[in-house]
Design goal:
Mean pLDDT: 89
Low-confidence stretches: 1-15
Oligomer: single chain
Distance between the termini: 57 Å
Number of helices: 13
Strand content: 15-25%
Shape: elongated
Length: 486
Amino acid sequence: MTKSLTNIEGHDHSHGLNRFAVIPTADRLNVDPRFTGRGVTIAFLDSGFYQHPDLVEPSSRIAAFHDISGDEIATDAQRPVESWHWHGTQTTVAAVGNGHLCEGKYRSVASDARLVLVKVSKKGRISETNIAQGLRWVIKNRERFNIRVLNISLGGDEDVPCSLSTIDQLAEEAIRQGIVIVVAAGNTTDHAPIPPANSPSVITVGGYDDRNQTGQKDLSLYHSSFGVTAGGTVKPELIAPAMWVAAPILPNTGVYERAEALSKLAAAPDYQLRSLARELEEKAQLPEGIAVGDAAKIRSFVESSLESEKIVATHYQHVDGTSFAAPIVSSIVAQMLEANPKLTPGAVKNILISTADRITTAPAIRQGFGVVNARRAVELALREEHVLKTVGCNAPRVESGRLVFLYHDDEANSVSLVGDFNSWNRALTPLTKNDSGLWFAEIEALKSGSYQYKFIVDGKRWLEDPSNGMKVPDNYGGLNSVLAID
């Protein structure tokens, strides 16, 4: 039985909450309520969409809709709901829904952000060609709709090096043009993330399970995709809630009709239950004869159905998957950009990475830099004084015969470089902060070979290079960055 946000014995009649309710994402992440994505546009590439009331009431926040197949010319609320509308509707509402159908209870983190919806399926079928078409459209229309964030909760066919993947190359181009791209890692531990989640510069998001509780106690990893990609980078960078996420049930469907009927029965007092059960018998799909039985049997069936169908309120159910962890991170990015519109994709990624918290009991390779910390990321975004013009800080590179290392963290007081090349001695290679806000160090160019290294921040935090996706386990539960010299 799940832990309820409401009194386990009572019900909230205003919007049909039952005792299987889940904690709203904003409460779960302890977000800063001052920022709701105002002035920020998030684009979504997904299988399809529906004009859900949480997106269009009291006024529509959908700035544009584009269907790469040409089958649908608008997200017309009057058109029939198709099976491929579910996923995109749930991801968008998870990121930017305003909770219109639940009086704000399940309002998302970025409830004031605008949306651009890009449907990349043809009757539910998605190919890499479709994803590429969607990415090209977003790049072409970036300035027209002021797209700052792109959420992609789907993937291509197989993991191949970035240089061989058209959608990876398009993702990298979109980031160079100023779009922060957040991608779901995938939901299997059998392989590393696939394009575009394996693209070096995107923010790839895995998942965790907080057991429907607030705070960061007793977290466990979701079965997200992870590992070394074909291009040699390690993914994901972050993990976010991938279970107990409230999402809408699509109106004008049988599921919606049944959820509404079951919620009414759950909220009814015992003395009204049998008469209401007879009235809603067909819509609630009650077994034959149960409507004339005693109230205890009716209530037992209703609550069992609510739990099995994951219904948390009249119009909502809880969902799971990295498809929903990614839009939660996208909504946090919208908060960050509202707080500081000057942030570049490189700065956003570095802030999210530097403020994340690792689950100490879980392997680093499965969680990247750890659990996203929404409040801390926004706080650091507010204080960020420098604009990173590069996608990231760049992995180590040779300049004029010297090997240059860069690290970005405005909050750091000192940074040291340690690795194979200096016997892991923290005193030998300190970094210096330059006028651009980057910590840097130069050493003599190294001989051909493979080297491992880390940064030490403020004398106590040992972490891998956020701008270098090449990593290996460090035999202490963490990761070392890898530098290959030809």
